[in-house]
């Protein structure tokens, strides 16, 4: 059976992360059978990381603040999480299913495919987003 996505619910979750008037800075999309659905959202990145277990495969859309003392900017990333215990067939399928998610999640600075929890480190993600963002005036202070 081909995978489908709950477009309305996923779009609503995506828009809440994008909205500057909310505190929500992440949302996750998971599989329920052959349907991709919202799997939670929140204000604490650690909460998002806790969903990334060895058995899970999910997509995360995360807002991370970057910038320097003069200018703070929100950067967005799409994270594809594939746990260590996910089967080979499910691993292969997530690559094609990602196109369904990208139909909704269209605005992000960098995309990550991660299966090692160490790579979910928030500072690592932030550094990669800064690199992807072009000019980094904060680097002059280093």
Secondary structure blueprint with pairings:
Blueprint: E1 4-5, H1 7-18, E2 26-32, E3 35-42, H2 45-50, E4 57-67, E5 72-82, H3 88-102, E6 110-114, H4 122-132
Parallel strand pairs: 1-3, 5-6
Antiparallel strand pairs: 2-3, 2-4, 4-5
Question: Would you kindly provide a written description of the structure presented here, covering whatever features stand out?
Answer:
With 142 residues, this protein is of the alpha/beta class. The protein contains 4 helices and 6 strands, in the order βαββαββαβα. The chain has helices at 7-18, 45-50, 88-102, 122-132, and strands at residues 4-5, 26-32, 35-42, 57-67, 72-82, 110-114. It has a 6-stranded mixed sheet, with helices on both faces. Strand 4 (57-67) and strand 5 (72-82) form a beta hairpin. It is globular. The termini are far apart. The model has no long low-confidence stretch (mean pLDDT 91).
